[in-house]
Amino acid sequence: MTPAEIRALISSNLADNSSITAVKHRAVENELINYAEATNSQLDTLSTAFLASLPKNKGWVGNFNPGTSTTLTFGGNVTNATLANVAESIISVTVLNAMPSMNYVVKGYVESMGGLSEDNTVGTVVFKKISTSQFQISTGEFDNENQNLKIHLEVTSLD
Length: 159
Fold this sequence. Notes:
four-stranded antiparallel beta sheet, 3 helices, rod-shaped
C-alpha cells in the first residue's frame, strides 16, 4: 500500500466514535508494518549500492620527486610504497583492503608540498593493476625541477 492508501485505511478502520473490531485494527497495524518493512528493504538496497560506490582504499604517497626520489612516505590505507623504477618514476603501491576483483580504478591527485611553480610541471598519474591489493603508479615531469609531491589515492571497485 502507498502512504495515501494507509491513511485512507486508518480513516475508515479507526474512525472517531466507532466500535473498532480487532480485525480492522490489525489490518491497519499490518499495513503499517508491511510499509515499514518495504521501506527498510529499499533503504538497505540503496545503502549497499551507495557504500559500494565509495573508495575502498584512500591514502597517499609522499616525498616524491619524479626521476630522483628514493625514500617515499605513505599513509592512510596505503601500507607500502616503494620505487620500482627510479628513472621512470614507477611506484609500487600496496593497499590495506583487497579489492573484490581486478575490476577497479585508481584515482591519483597530486599535491604540491614545496613550491607550486616547481611542482606544477608533472603529468597525469597513470596506474597499472598488479593484483587486488597492489598496483603501480607513475607520473612524468615536463622539466627538470626539484619537486616535492604528495599523491593522494582513491581505489574504488567497479563491480
